[in-house]
Amino acid sequence: MLSSTCTAAVRGLSTTAQLSKINNVTVIGAGLMGSGIAQVSANAKLNVTVVDSNQSALDKAQKGITSSLQRVAKKKHADDAAAQTALVSSVLDRIKMSTNVSDSVKDADLVIEAIVENIDIKRKLFAEVEAAAKPTTLITTNTSSLRLADIGLNLKDKTRFGGLHFFNPVPMMKLLEVVRHNDTSDATFEQLIEYGKTVGKTTVACKDTPGFIVNRLLVPYMFEALRLYERGDASMPDIDVAMKLGAGYPMGPFELSDYVGLDTCKFIMDGWHKQYPDEVAFKPSPLLDSLVDAGKTGRKSGEGFYKYK
Ligand code: CAA
Ligand code: NAD
């Protein structure tokens, strides 16, 4: 085993020898998470490119980032409209939008994938990213639930691959889970922690286990609330009120599920259930399945457990 001084020296060496400073960040997926990750990265003065296969998702992201920045700017410069406008435009100026993955990752120092929670689609994307990116680019996923070892299975260089798990809404949530799998190098892991600090997040180190820390606890809790409701033990609004006022959570479990996206909740649970069929905490919910089948995916579609304007 290496002594701590010796380990630090080895780490220091590999960091400077292999990886460049992070200036250019490419975020792939312009949905709820990708737009927030782009915003906090640009706010930290990094150059950001956001990529999505769907132009309308990019248009929606542009609007979402603008209105989120306006909220931040209003708080920061309450009585100064000019300063608010300057803040919003200085951040927006650092964000480019594109539908072309290969072109957008060519100059990236860091790629953050935030597309749909589907292993085959993610693997296909990572093959394209690795083929087009520089040999020093850090390649990461914002997956909520999938194993990094599975997502990155076909990467040629797995040492530069890790997890950056942000929380929704990204501009407000202070945590970033930094995930390493067996092949993530120390240098990569340290640079991902450094990036987290740059974008103003508190980081925690996670291993490549289902749900890392937060979702391993939070998602089974959300599904337990569904089971409580499905058994007829309490109404949805009462469960939400109970957890807010009795447990101090900012949102009840149904409000939170709608906020996260019911499709994302379903993808997470279906994946775990397939992998661990005997684990009762990972049992899917018929009610959630029927809502997703009907296109009711929560706030983002206008309806989930509740209806939204
Ligand atoms: N951008 C910028 N500012 C925002 C914002 C956004 N997207 N959303 C909220 N805010 C700001 C508002 O401007 C407001 O600021 P002030 O109080 O200074 O005026 C503040 O946040 C509170 O907002 P609201 O009054 O609109 O509403 P709220 O008090 O209910 O707070 C919330 C909103 C921050 C989302 C809060 O309800 C909350 O923390 N909810 C829980 C969120 C959570 O648990 N997220 C984790 C989900 S799990 C996950 O992400 C992992 C996964 O893999 C699935
Ligand atoms: P979302 O549905 O809001 O957005 C996904 C975006 O990815 C869509 O705009 C879609 O057009 C795009 N996309 C799909 N396939 C693509 C491809 N091959 N190339 C380019 N773009 C593609 O999803 P989201 O909620 O932002 O979740 C994204 C990822 O982040 C998922 O892995 C999810 O598990 C994870 N995550 C979600 C939350 C949450 O609360 N929603 C929190 C943390 C992590």
From TrEMBL:
Every 3-hydroxyacyl-CoA dehydrogenase NAD binding domain range: 24-209
InterPro entries recorded: 3-OHacyl-CoA_DH, 3-OHacyl-CoA_DH_CS, 3-OHacyl-CoA_DH_NAD-bd, 3HC_DH_C, 6-PGluconate_DH-like_C_sf, 6PGD_dom2, Mito_3-hydroxyacyl-CoA_DH, NAD(P)-bd_dom_sf
Gene Ontology MF: a single term: NAD+ binding
Name of the top EC class for this enzyme: oxidoreductase
Record site feature (Important for catalytic activity), residues: H165
Location of the 3-hydroxyacyl-CoA dehydrogenase C-terminal domain: 211-308
Keywords for this protein: Fatty acid metabolism, Lipid metabolism, Mitochondrion, NAD, Oxidoreductase
Residues that, per the record, bind CoA: S68, K75, S144
The EC number(s) this enzyme carries: 1.1.1.35
Pathway: Lipid metabolism; fatty acid beta-oxidation
GO CC terms of this entry: mitochondrial matrix
Annotated GO biological process: fatty acid beta-oxidation
UniProt-annotated location(s): Mitochondrion matrix
Keyword Transferase part of the UniProt annotation: no
UniProt record similarity statement: Belongs to the 3-hydroxyacyl-CoA dehydrogenase family.
Subunit details: Homodimer.
Protein name in the entry: 3-hydroxyacyl-CoA dehydrogenase
Organism of origin: Caenorhabditis latens
Lineage, opening ranks: Eukaryota, Metazoa, Ecdysozoa, Nematoda, Chromadorea
